[in-house]
Amino acid sequence: MTLYTDARNVLSGLSTPDARTFRDLLATGPESVLPTTAGPHLTASALVVAPDRERVLLCLHGRVGAWMQMGGHCEPGDATLAAAALREAREESGIDGLLIGPEPIGLDVHPVRCRFGPSVHYDVRYAVLAPEGAEPVCSAESKDLAWFAPDALPSPLADGVVPLIGPALRWAYST
Asked: Do residues 25 and 32 lie in contact, with contact meaning Cβ atoms separated by under 8 Å?
């Protein structure tokens, strides 16, 4: 299975209003998942939940200047959207042994200036559980990285982070 096929399968199984917009993007062809130029394309991200299931890991993104979940562009080696989100979470958190949820916990469309220029990211978001003893390490893409309780979130916080917290914690508690 290709990343494009997986993306079509994942998004066809979602009944949220935003899912149709994502399916419309995928209808433009396989280049929608592996960007090489500016324009709309799929991305994958992950909200990492602490082993205690009481906090989430956020990064202060260097380019965006706001606290957010880890994520980014899909790459040719990513077999699935979940694999892309998990890879991004590992790269940006420095944590190995992460466990990813089976289904996306959110979708978000937002304009951004990425490495390809002015673009629109169609972000598929997953929950990820960190293993016991996880110690995050800040990557070069971030200015900071820290655990936060849902009632003590940092500022400035990127749009779309708060709606991910409830679903991520619920999934983590069920795991």
From this structure: yes
Q: At what angle do helices 3-12 and 81-93 cross, to 10 degrees?
A: 110
Rounded Cα–Cα distance for residues 100 and 103 (Å): 9
Distance CA 131, CA 49 (A): 9
Supply the Cα-derived Rg of the chain in whole angstroms: 15
- Kindly state the tokens that stand for 18: 């935003």
Whole-prediction pTM value? 0.95
C-alpha 111: how far from its chain's center? 15
Q: What's the pLDDT score for residue 6?
A: 97
- Which single residue is written with the structure tokens 């990820």? 128
> For 58-136, where are the alpha helices, taking DSSP H only?
81-93
Region of residue 71 (phi > 0: left; psi between -120 and 50: alpha; otherwise: beta):
left
- Measured in degrees and rounded to the nearest 5, phi and psi for residue 122 equal -100, 95
Contact 65, 93 (CB under 8 A): no
Whole-angstrom Cα distance, residue 31 to residue 150? 36
**Whole-number pLDDT of residue 141:** 80
Structure tokens at 88: 């991004």
Residue 58 three-state SS? strand
Query: In the chain, which ranges are continuous DSSP H helix?
Result: 3-12, 17-26, 81-93, 162-174
Which pLDDT score, from 0 to 100, does residue 23 have? 97
